[in-house]
Amino acid sequence: MRRRASAVPRRGRAEATVFRTGRPARAGQYAALLCYLVFLAFPFLWLISTAFKPARELASLHPTWIPKNPTLDNFRQAFDEQPLLQAAGNSLVAALSAALIAVVVATPMAYVMARSRSRLSAAATGWVVVSQAFPFVLVIIPLFLVLKSLHLINALSGLVMVYVVWSLPFALWMLVGYVRAVPRELEEAAAVDGAGRLRTLVSVTAPLLAPGIVATALFAFVTAWNEFFFALVLLKSPEKQTLPVVLTHFLGAEGVADLGPLAAAAFLATIPSLVVFALIQRRITGGMLAGAVKS
Predict the structure, then answer these.
(1) Cα separation of 107 and 110, whole Å?
(2) Please, which residues have CB within 8 angstroms of residue 293's CB and are 6 or more apart in sequence?
């Protein structure tokens, strides 16, 4: 009885100690998170500030956060100098097409890789991870030759094909994890009711994979929207160039940037990614199996 009585105060003291030390640790975590958010937001906020500054403030030796005389001249000059709307349309077509095709192709492939326990499936999963380590420069020459033989150089369809192939490994890697999180009991119940593999994938598994499919599509879209190297090499006609390539045209012959219009165009180029993420972020953060299994 004495041991039990002495154990209670010790446990209480330990819990009190954890509680006291928990608050500073939690405050430190919040402070680190705040610093990280400031670190991420600093370039974007500076970009916005630069986009609205007149030329005199941009040349000042003492830059300020908030423009003293905000102006829209940089935006007007950006649209006058370069075909931003046409380039944005090309980027939008390429990014949306690549995201849609990648999701349609990756979903059944991820289902097979996740449900199969063969050595071939394990080898395919390993190859998916290893393929992400290949640099762009390593594949650009054979890729250029293949597309040239298919007459897809200087064509958005060829660029979309490249984007799909490049984003497909990571899309598979993401979706395999989501498929493995789906209980097999749901698919077994569908099989008992007479549903085949394809019907089970479409009617049972795919709705539960909605957050994963949305996250994968967002990844493929943002990757294709921001991609520069492939678009620079494969697209030669000015009317077919994407927005990241057109942004480089604000650099002068000697590498001197027209900072105001460049900042304005770059700010406009970031808006579609932010809008897409804002529209579908609830689907990403939502529980994947919320309401799937009734208690």
Answers:
(1) 5
(2) 183, 186
Listed in sequence order, the DSSP H helices in 116-228 are 119-131, 136-149, 156-180, 184-192, 197-200, 206-208, 210-226
Q: What phi and psi values does residue 251 have, to the nearest 5 degrees?
A: -90, 135
- Pairs from 79-86 (Cβ < 8 Å, separation ≥ 24): 81/249, 81/250, 81/258, 81/261, 82/246, 82/249, 82/250, 82/265, 83/238, 83/239, 83/246, 84/243, 84/246, 84/265, 84/268, 86/239
* Amino acid 102: pLDDT: 92
Distances (CA, A) of 49 to 56, 132, 188, 250, 269: 14, 36, 57, 18, 15
DSSP output for 228-251: -HHHHHH--SGGG--HHHHHGGGB
* pLDDT < 50: residue spans in the chain: 1-9, 11, 13-20, 287-295
- Return the amino acid letter for 248: T
User: What is the predicted pLDDT for the residue at 193?
Assistant: 78
Q: What angle do CA 58, 64, 69 make, to 5 degrees?
A: 65
- The whole-angstrom separation of Cα 23 and Cα 248 is 49
DSSP type of residue 87 = H
Predicted confidence at residue 284, as pLDDT, reads: 58
User: How does DSSP classify residue 72?
Assistant: S
Cα–Cα distances (Å) from 212 to 151, 215, 216, 230, in that order, read: 35, 5, 6, 27
> How much is the pLDDT for 292?
40
The rounded distance, in Å, linking the Cα atoms of 253 and 31 is 44
The answer to whether residues 107 and 213 touch, using CB atoms and an 8 Å cutoff, is yes
| Contact present, 87 and 245 (Cβ < 8 Å) | yes
CA 153 to chain centre: 26
- What pLDDT score does 289 carry? 41
pLDDT at site 294 = 39
